[in-house]
Amino acid sequence: MKVSWRWKWVVAAFCALGVQGEAAADAPRVIRLTSAEWPPYTSQTLRQQGVTTAVIRAAFAAVGCQLAVDFYPWRRAIALAEREARYAGYFPEYAAQSADGHFLLSESVGDGPLGFAERKDAPVQWQRLDELGPLRIGVVQGYLNTDDLDRRIGDGLQKVDEARDDAQNLLKLAAGRVRLAVIDRRVFQYLVHADPRVMSFAGELRFNSRLLEDKGLYVAFRNTEEGREARRLLNEGLKKIDVKAVVEAALR
After folding, report:
1. What letters, b where the CB count within 10 A reaches 16 and e where it falls short, cover 7-45?
2. Which of 25-39, 90-104, 192-206, 230-244 has the lowest average pLDDT?
3. Which CATH superfamily does the domain covering 11-16+24-108+216-251 fall into?
4. What pLDDT, on a 0 to 100 scale, did the predictor assign at position 102?
5. Global pTM value
């Protein structure tokens, strides 16, 4: 009788392991990425964690994968994505980042209209970047701008003042410390309506009518076997969804 009960326990244990194995096999693959606070594109406080996050999550879901995002300050987000194997990459990134070889860019997950914020009482009319050389321009530390503007900054042809984030950049603009502030138009619109630091002087600022560039937004994947596979899955998923519809829904 004891042998019989012992046998039943063994059978039950194997059955339990089999059920657990099936559940594990059915569980979606989790792709973990890093990002930073850059609303409305990415933010741990926003619905769906921001517009760009919503697009990436929908694309991965379309191929049976689950997205997990860890938020850090921007430079740390990039550094952790590069050195820690648990991360497949980071987002959002502009196309210029692909040049260093450490990361491979996905297909586009949206766009970002990059331009200048200005004071309403001191508008700037310009056609070429070299006309802005005498003006001090606010930029965010660690952010890419456009190739031409970054080249001019690197060559010492453009006066700049660095800020730690977009909100501080706008604070400097409002205080008259810079004449223009480089910023994405959707980020500008979000900050003047939702960030307490900016809302108090939002009426003094506006977005300059001339864009620097309509920038594509991408996920930068590690150039490893795991990163390349995650990139393949995302690109496949992007073909299965309507990116524009996801963006519009997330912005409502």
Report:
1. eeeeeeeeeeeeeeeeeeeeeeeebbbbbbbbbbbbbee
2. 90-104
3. Periplasmic binding protein-like II (3.40.190.10)
4. 86
5. 0.83
